Amino acid sequence: MNLTTEIEFLVGAEKRLTDVLDEAQTQPLLNSAVKAGVGFAAIVDDRGVPLWSLGTHQPLPIPVEEDWDATCRLLLEGEPVGAVCLIRGQVSSKGCGIMAHLIAEALNSIINNNLKRMLTTEIHTRVVNQSYDELLESNRRLTESEKKYRDLAETLERRVQERSGELKRAYARLIQQEKMASVGQLAAGVAHEINNPISYILSNLNMLRRYLGKMASMLEHYRELHASAGSEKWQELKLDMVLGDAGELLDQNVSGAEKIIQIVSDLKGFSHVDDMGESAVDINLEIDRTLGVLSREIPGDARIVKEYGDLPTFEGNAAQLCQVVLNLLRNAFQARPRGLQLVITTEHKGENIRIRFSDNGPGVPDDIRNRIFEPFFTTRDVGQGTGLGLTVAYDIVTGYGGTIEVENRRQGGAVFLVQLPVTGGTHGQLR
Amino acid sequence: MIEYDECEKRMVLKLVYYGPALSGKTTNLLQLHDLLQPEGRGDLMVLDTKDDRTIFFDLLPFFLMAPSGLRIKLKVYTVPGQVKHDATRKAVLQRADGVAFIADSQRSEITNNFNSFQNLEKNLGFVGLDIEHIPLVVQFNKRDLGGIVAEEEVRRVWNPSGIPVFMSSALHGTGVLETFVQLADRTYEHIDSRYGLAGNHGLDKHMFLSQLVRRRSDYS
Ligand SMILES: Nc1nc2c(ncn2[C@@H]2O[C@H](COP(=O)(O)OP(=O)(O)O)[C@@H](O)[C@H]2O)c(=O)[nH]1
Ligand SMILES: [Mg+2]
């Protein structure tokens, strides 16, 4: 007879008492009970039907008592599935109880061990009961189907992985978009509030400077006319120094106000509240803007070298580009808070625009180099960052069909290289 | 689902406690065992891990009865967290009806949690289950310890996923029942319409949960 039995392994598959116990294991125990003087010894199932028994014949089945003495229950995966049942011959009922309890205990541990053994050996096991030729044939088929199965499993794993990766990235993007939107609104609000007052401050300052000039020349004029009377008072009030200093104070105020106007306009430009769509982007200008916005985060002793090449304009969303630059700059600032030397290089090469950030930080260890663009992966303390910055940069750049890579410099430090395809950009001219 | 036999009126369900090694999966089951009345549940079966190299998991079975006479057995398993026991984890996950992911709140365990969750996603796919659809709850355990990830941090990360998250200290029995009840709740929702638990068997969710979770009176 050629019979193939397959045992598909499944933890939790229902088992019966007869699956985990057999006669060879129960008989010696029942035997010893009978030898000790018990009239009838049996292992019964949950309906009281004897599965194995020994001794004087008894009417079957044995009535199940409402609550069988818990101590002689047999448990399978925690569930009562049967019991040890001893009917006294010459043994006292107390003795019977103790014996039943001992036997149940022994059987429960055998059941547990058998269950463990089954679970162990059944994992991925097939029992094949066939002639040798058929065995070979089935082996060949088995290998084939196993290969198919493995292929399937592999693509499945990959697909699940891809999918969960996509989900995580989409989630990261959402968070970041939300953040950017609120930064943009804030920037627009601040810019609006500051723009008006600072504009009239600046124009008033200029006006004041002109008035001051007029008053100064009037004073000169008086001094020349009344040299003797005025000269003493002139000296006393130190008007030479006052006039010189007043001009300088005004100059400083004007340049301060101009600086504020520049910052506001950087902030506005950076947040790109005005243009969320695609346009022709001057990458060098956007890097400068971003540096402007980040100026407070730049470590005091940092040295930043800009080596900008001649770039064609890039067709894309300027806000997104700023976000990439901002995240890579921040990354550099955090990598080396003291003594940072950062070189920012841009160049146009073939079909690509390349932006390179090389720092003199600790570099990126080999074992995590593949992971730093993963969402939530961070080597920094909580609070220093969400672990999303590089992921967002990665998403934006790859969204444009570009690449972003990190390498360690031989002399220490990391280089982040962003490559963006020029597609659609026209050299040197805005559209 | 492990088994559904309409003629025999039997249904066997499987819930799995997943997570990294030592996150407190076994402790969760020990506490469930202690917090709930013996009525309606079996004994906890802890497969000792010391001398057995192949299978490490724990099992706590529950027994329910629907008004229609349908007997439901619900087996709650833990998986071994160690990386090398991946085969056992797959076998335990097979045909699971719901999963509780037990994370260790300690900051030092962040990476282990992450890896274990990825492993869960991978293995669910492997046994043909879908992480998007299987009833899933997450528990951040060991809240009683120092050096743990702050709750708002946990919520910030997990809330967008829509997966219910519970803070617990399994060692002291807090958060354990909440996690279990929510998992059972979701599992019921998941299978009810397909198997007509309420419609054909007269077992509504409230009844299902109250049969499953019978607190010992001295704990309530
Ligand atoms: N402090 C603390 N320790 C816990 C808690 N839960 C579990 N543990 C301990 O963590 C260790 C591992 O627990 P266990 O349940 O065996 O983990 P498993 O590997 O996931 O099954 C044990 O020493 C437990 O006592 C908890 O809430 N707080
Ligand atoms: Mg355990």
Characterize this entry briefly.
With about 425 residues, chain A is of the alpha+beta class.
Protein architecture, described:
The complex is a heterodimer of chains A (431) and B (220). Chain A is an alpha+beta fold. Chain A folds into 3 domains: 17-138, 2-Layer Sandwich (Beta-Lactamase); 177-268, no CATH class; 275-427, 2-Layer Sandwich (Heat Shock Protein 90), CATH 3.30.565. Helices cover 52% and strands 17% of the residues of chain A. In chain A, the strands form 4 sheets. In chain A, strands 8-10-11-13-12 form a 5-stranded mixed beta sheet. Chain A has a 4-stranded antiparallel beta sheet with strand order 3-2-5-4. In chain A, strand 10 (341-349) and strand 11 form a beta hairpin. The longest helix of chain A is centred in the middle third of the chain and has 94 residues, at 132-225. Chain A starts with a strand and ends in a 10-residue tail after the last strand. Mean pLDDT of chain A is 77; it is low at 1-8, 123-132 and 424-431. Chain B has 220 residues and is of the alpha/beta class. Chain B has a single domain (3-219), classed as P-loop containing nucleotide triphosphate hydrolases (Rossmann fold, 3-Layer(aba) Sandwich). In chain B, 33% of the residues lie in helices and 21% in strands. In chain B, helix 5 (176-195) packs across helix 6. The interface between A and B is medium-sized, with 29 and 41 residues. The complex binds guanosine-5'-diphosphate and magnesium ion. The site of guanosine-5'-diphosphate has 17 residues of chain B, from helix 1.
